[in-house]
Amino acid sequence: MYDAIIVGAGPAGSTAALEMARKGYKVAVFEEHEKIGEPVRCAGLVSERVIKMHNEAVVNRIDGADIIFPDGREIHIEKKGHAYVIDRARFDESIAELAMAEGAKYFTGKKIMDVETGNHFEVGGVKARILIGADGANSRMAKMFHSGKMEYVYAIQGYARYEMEIEYVRVYLNHDFAPGFFAWIIPEDEKNVRIGLGATSKNLNSHFKKFLKTIDMEEDSIKKLTAGLIPVKLRKFIHKNIALVGDAAGQTKPTSGGGIYTGMTAAKMLADSVDDITKYEKEYMKKIGRELKKGKVAMKIFAKMNNRMLNMMGKIIDNDVDAINRYGDIDYPSIVIKELVKRHSLFVFKR
Ligand SMILES: Cc1cc2nc3c(=O)[nH]c(=O)nc-3n(C[C@H](O)[C@H](O)[C@H](O)COP(=O)(O)OP(=O)(O)OC[C@H]3O[C@@H](n4cnc5c(N)ncnc54)[C@H](O)[C@@H]3O)c2cc1C
């Protein structure tokens, strides 16, 4: 009998496996793909906190961002070493390798469609007392155990050759081509970038074409275009001896779509609470859940803004870049949002 069956070998599932195996628990991980980490549906931009948790597969260091508003205003934010670009496939694979080295058993190429329940859980002859759903944004485990409906941002991303300053990401706020969210260009090195956008509406291809036109990029210069879902709502993530973790639980930042830090942190907390998994939910809500809820409120307000409002916001921020430099934190965006709202009552926009 295993202590836990984990469904999904993404950063959340494999971090849970690694931490639990290190504590001496017997863990079995089921992953639908043969190759862990593939296919990649992620821009791979993470904070230094993530690198402190798992220092592998870094391809570039980011020292700030240029934010581009609909009227063409560009605001430069300087934040040295605040973020890193990772090779997401290698990142996932390397966490799994560590977990295996600690004794976690991996079953790859095994898509879990059903779990037998009773006194214990059973998948393909493997029995365990706890089931962990780490099966991503479209979590089958969450659906199976009725953990509530999810809300999503739809995202699309590809790769291109494009020359830009390699220390800065470019973030485009424009609700014509990225309604409710934003578009990005993330440099991997001197010549290669990741380019994508998120939107609260589904017609991603037409949004993406519009974005490419705005930045004068040919459609056929984009390689390996993929679409993915970003959950933007926390679910109830404990149900008796079942725990959800990572995107399956909606543990992503609604303002940026980033879920690697929030999911890996959850996985560590879960591994600390194996003997009483209710502690995991309480602890997570106290340390990160509150931040995600504030992010959801901010995202809702942002999604209602039109481009004229975004331009107004640009004007305000331009006069107070210092606030972003001082308070900006990609894992805890509510800190800078709160500061800006405090300093500029005009953040109460009129349509
Ligand atoms: C376009 C895009 C860009 C993004 N950019 C960033 C970014 O820059 N920074 C950031 O922090 N986050 C980003 N995210 C979010 C980030 O990718 C996720 O938050 C993160 O991958 C969540 O990790 P996870 O382990 O919870 O889930 P996943 O990484 O999705 O892993 C789930 C695993 O479960 C497996 N699986 C699913 N169903 C089953 C099943 N039934 N049986 C067995 N295995 C199964 C999958 O194959 C997968 O390996 C982005 C997302 C998208 C869509």
3D architecture notes:
A hairpin with a 2-residue loop joins strand 7 and strand 8. Helix content is 33%, strand content 27%. The strands form two sheets. It has an eight-stranded mixed sheet with strand order 3-5-4-10-11-12-9-13. With 351 residues, it is α/β, with parallel strands linked by helices. The N and C termini lie far apart (60 Å). Helix 6 runs antiparallel to helix 7. It has helices at 11-22, 48-53, 88-101, 140-144, 204-214, 260-271, 278-304, 307-318, 321-327, 334-343, and strands spanning 2-7, 27-31, 45-47, 58-68, 74-86, 105-108, 121-123, 126-133, 152-161, 168-172, 183-187, 192-199, 223-231, 238-239, 242-244. The mean pLDDT is 94. It is globular and about 60 Å long. It folds into two domains: 2-299, FAD/NAD(P)-binding domain (3-Layer(bba) Sandwich), CATH 3.50.50; 300-347, no CATH class.
Reported by name, the CATH topology of the largest domain is FAD/NAD(P)-binding domain
What is the beta-strand fraction? Answer: 25-35%
Span between termini = 60 Å
**Averaged pLDDT:** 94
- Which bin fits the share of residues in helices? 25-40%
Structure annotation, total helices = 10
Provide the succession of SSEs: EHEEHEEHEEEHEEEEHEEEHHHHH
CATH architecture of the largest domain: 3-Layer(bba) Sandwich
Main sheet specs: 8 strands, mixed
| pLDDT < 50 stretches | none
Output the strand order for the largest sheet. Answer: 3-5-4-10-11-12-9-13
| C-alpha Rg (nearest Å) | 20 Å
In terms of structural class, how would the helical and strand content be classed?
Answer: alpha/beta
CATH homologous superfamily designation of the largest domain: FAD/NAD(P)-binding domain
Number of strands: 15
> What general outline do the C-alpha atoms trace?
globular
